[in-house]
Amino acid sequence: MKQYIEQNKERFLQELFELLRLPSISADPDFKNDVEKTSKAVAESLIKAGADKVEVCKTAGNPIVYAEKIIDNNLPTILVYGHYDVQPPDPLDLWESKPFEPVIKNDKIYARGACDDKGQMFMHVKALETMLKTNSLPCNVKFMIEGEEEVGSTNLGIFVNENKEKLKADIILISDTGIIANDIPSITVGLRGLSYVEVEVTGPNRDLHSGLYGGAVANPINVLCEMIARLKNDKNVITIPGFYDDVEILSAEERAEMAKAPFSLDEYKKALDLSDIHGEEGYSTNERTSIRPTLDVNGIWGGYIGEGAKTVIPSKAFAKISMRLVPHQDSEKITKLFADYFQKIAPPSVKVKVKPHHGGQPVVTPTNSIAYKAASMAMETTFGKKPIPMRSGGSIPIVAMFKTVLGLDSVLLGFGLDSDAIHSPNESYGLFNFFKGIETIPHFFNNFNKLYKK
Ligand code: BES
Ligand code: MN
Ligand code: MN
């Protein structure tokens, strides 16, 4: 198997590059055609790899690619999930090479989607090819690759609900997360949930001369900033009443166990060019990004931002705000708590609208399952080290739905690194990580089959 991968390395990369050249930006309707093309390209790649029954399933939004290779109904079935859509590449001027013209530099692939998630999703396509070509596929496998993960997976939610029989499996396998370092393998066992809102603050009914009216009417940008500032106190604790009510409290033992994961604060600061860190009092950096919820402004706009100066009090100001949630917080409940509080703290001089966007529930996956063991053993074989279980700060909203709707746990067997800069300019994915993934996946299949039989 290793030999097959070695012999086909160059071709695997060229095929991934073909996918990376397609700008499948789900957030921007201008790229609808490219998104569609990408779904077809993913389907083609699955046919080429040897999958049967490859389908491009239409939805109200972007297509979902489904494929399967059923070899024996008595064998376990692994359902691979991934996404072919990517985040917008902007700001474009900060890219050192073009986002949709992949290049290799310093043993890394640079392109939007290189790691999140085309590169990682494609490892599974090539692992399937490798297992089939070396006559070593030990289980049944199904693929479900969507094109709306980066915009909330709304239509995948519907698809999953309508296709429970088709999606029957024993475990879901996902590579859309990361490891601690190339010499410190880890398996993600938790993902945060998400509440995402957009707020609009309206002051006067038109933009005003800031000399004639300044000082006498509310400036919605000033008011919005003051309101945002009130969402946290001086200990960086979120002030929305009830926000922490359902938050799972970890025991001192659990926190001590978490603290064993290798981490260097100096290196963390250096990697981000920060002279100091910032966050909720009483918690470590790793805790702040995994077991604690957050509130962040993702974008804020209003007024005049063109060349030169314009003296104006704008009529409106806007912000996009996200809250990352932890077990057992509920996305809809938190969105409502936010909306009520944001209305409440608005001064009577402005009107406030809160528009909810997509959300998702947090998840924790078991570490005592045969699937976790199979993943752990697979990584131990290929990395030469037992992986560390680790909760991640990111979100993959559909994972919680897989559990509630299909009754299936997921194994988050990702190979990315924090330094891959996903969602940022110059996203990359290490060649080491790409090929390590292709090598590790067949071991997971094998281990899962063996442990399943016992
Ligand atoms: N693959 C990421 C999530 C991720 C990355 C989890 C690294 C753990 C480690 C996924 O594509 C993503 O970006 N999800 C979004 C949520 C979505 C609703 C936009 C996120 O976390 O912001
Ligand atoms: Mn992703
Ligand atoms: Mn992403």
Number of strands: 18
Low-confidence stretches: none
Helical segment count: 12
| Cofactors, ions, other ligands | ligand BES, manganese (II) ion
CATH fold label of the largest domain: Aminopeptidase
Architecture of the largest domain, according to CATH? 3-Layer(aba) Sandwich
- Strand share of the residues? 15-25%
What class, by secondary structure content? alpha+beta
| CATH superfamily descriptor of the largest domain | Zn peptidases
Largest sheet, spatial ordering of strands: 1-2-6-3-7-17
CATH class of the largest domain: Alpha Beta
How many structural domains in the coordinates? 2
Terminal CA distance reads 25 Å
* Secondary structure: helix percent: 25-40%
For the largest beta-sheet, the strand count, sense and barrel status come to:
6 strands, mixed
Break the fold down into its secondary structure elements and pairings.
Layout: H1 2-20, H2 32-49, E1 52-57, E2 64-69, E3 77-83, E4 103-105, E5 108-110, H3 118-133, E6 140-146, H4 154-162, E7 171-174, E8 186-191, E9 193-202, E10 208-209, H5 220-229, H6 252-258, H7 265-272, H8 285-288, E11 294-302, E12 312-313, E13 316-325, H9 331-344, E14 351-360, E15 363-364, H10 370-383, E16 388-391, H11 398-406, E17 410-412, E18 428-430, H12 431-453
Parallel strand pairs: 3-6, 3-7, 7-17, 8-16
Antiparallel strand pairs: 1-2, 2-6, 4-5, 5-18, 8-15, 9-13, 9-14, 10-12, 11-13
Helix pairs in contact: 1-3, 2-3, 3-12, 4-11, 10-12
This protein binds ligand BES and manganese (II) ion (MN) (2 copies).
